[in-house]
Amino acid sequence: MLSTSRMSQTTLQRIRKLCRLGGYAFLLAGLAPMAGLPALAAPPQQAEPAPVAARGSDDRRDATLPRQTQPLHIEAQSLRYDERQRRSVFSGSVVMTQGLIVLRADRMEFHEDAQGQVHGTMHGLDGKVASFRQHREGGDEFVEGEAQTITYDAVTTTVTLRQRARLRKYRGAVLSDAFEAQMIVYDGEADRFELVGQPAAGPASAVGSGHGTRVRAMISPRASAPATPTQAPILLRSSTGIDAPGL
Known about the structure:
Blueprint (H helix, E strand, L loop, with lengths): L8 H13 L35 H7 L9 E3 L2 E5 L4 E12 L2 E12 L5 E6 L6 E6 L5 E7 L1 E5 L4 E14 L2 E14 L4 E5 L19 E4 L14 E3 L11
Antiparallel strand pairs: 1-3, 2-3, 3-4, 4-5, 4-6, 5-8, 6-7, 7-9, 8-9, 9-10, 10-11, 10-12, 12-13
GO biological process, one term: lipopolysaccharide transport
Protein name: Lipopolysaccharide export system protein LptA
Organism: Candidatus Symbiobacter mobilis CR
C-alpha cells in the first residue's frame, strides 16, 4: 500500500500513468489541485464538503466524449494504491466526476477488473450518507440521490444505492419525482431505475405494523407546462401487507 503523504514525485507520476492506462485519471488534493466541481445540495445528515471552484470547460469537454472514454476526476484528502490488486482507496471528503455525474462520499474504493473496467464503491461514515447528482443531457433535468453505500459502474454509468436509499428527479429547480427504498438501481444512460424493498422477517405482518419496508414513490404528472397548484402530484405510500422481494 502507498500513502500520498510519503510518495515521491516518481511514484506519483507512475501512479498517474497506470491510472490513465486503466481508463481513469486521479486528481489528488494538495498534489494536483482540481478547479472546482458543480455544487451538490447537501443530503440529510451529511456535511457539505468545502466548496471547490468550477472546473470550467473540462466538464463540457469530457461530456462530449464517448461514455466509455470519459475520464474519472477524483479529489480526496488521501489515497492508498495497491498496484498488484489494482485497488485504490480514497478517503476524506471525496469528490468524483465523470462527464455530467458527480459523486461525494467519505470513502471511495475503486477496483479495475481483468478487462480494464473500473468499478467503485462509495461509503458514508459515522451515520452520514454518500450522494450523487447527474445532469441529464439535452435538457434542464437533474437526478440526485443518497444512500449509506453507493456502487458506481464507470462504463455503464449505473448507480446502485443501498440502505437508506433515496432518489429525486428535478425539472429545473422543481422537484418532479421522489423515491425511497432499501435498494435503488439507476441506469443513467437509459434514465431507468428499479426499486427494491426489504421484506418483513417471519410471517406476513398486518398493514401498519411497521415490520419490513416497502418502496415509496411520489410521481408528478407529465405536462408540457410546469405543474400548477391544481395539478397535485400522485403520492404512493408504503404498505407492509404484501411481501416485498428480497435483496
